[in-house]
Amino acid sequence: MNNLCVAHRGFSGKAPENTRAAIQMAMDEPFVHWMEIDVQLTRDGVPVVIHDFSVDRTTTGRGKVKDLTWQEIRRMDAGQWKGRQFKGEQVPSLDEVLQMVKGRLKLNIELKTSGDMYPGLEEAVLERIRAYHMLPDVVLTSFEPKALIKAKELEPEVRTGLIIDAHPRNLISRLKQMKCSFLSIGYSHLDAAFAAELMRNGITPMAWTVDDAKSMRTLAKMSPDIMICTNRPDTWGQIFIQKIAPKVPFWRRKWRF
User: Fold this and answer.
1) 125-157 pLDDT per residue, tens
2) Is 51 a catalytic residue?
3) How is residue 249 annotated by DSSP?
4) Which end of the chain is more exposed for a tag (fewer CB within 10 A), N or C?
5) Which residue numbers delimit the GP-PDE domain (predicted)?
6) Is 8 known to be catalytic?
């Protein structure tokens, strides 16, 4: 059992999601190999790491991310909603996250968009990834096929993956048409046969969002190639920590797709 653990928005089960505190907490776990984050653009074009299209739920501010400047978002508290100990946490920029994880974790970066909400999002994200020389260490994912196609047009070498909470019959053919080598799928839609079919076609599956031990064990039994995305890396660790080989240095790890 050597499924890769993906920390969903960092260690969001304990820390405020998509903040530096959650990212650091995820990095502190030796069995976390990957992290999933969400990226949007501010009004002045800065890629920021936040999930909702609005800042209302996870910050002390109000409004839509696309209508706010970087400095306006920066002044908001993004931590105290999760607990007093996180007061003062800020919404990080993509730059800050890349600086934190470079050489330590690989990233699943969700392009958080719908339709034409964020013109230039793909360019802005790819520019920052290239600036940190992290193209081999990321996969760009999205619910929005247009964003994935655009990203591939801009950078043919970037790995891309569709996010979906369904299993339509033509899914693999759609992924091939979009040149995706990754599938982020709601875990209830995965079974052993489908996981094997994906791998035969050069597509790595990631199951989301899996927080209970029973579901994690079920997925692990299906295939060791299913990446497990979770808000609770500690639960994953309780199951797998005794069965993992000694941690392999980052520079010796290989992609599995």
Assistant:
1) 999 999 999 999 999 999 999 999 999 999 999
2) yes
3) P
4) N
5) 3-240
6) yes
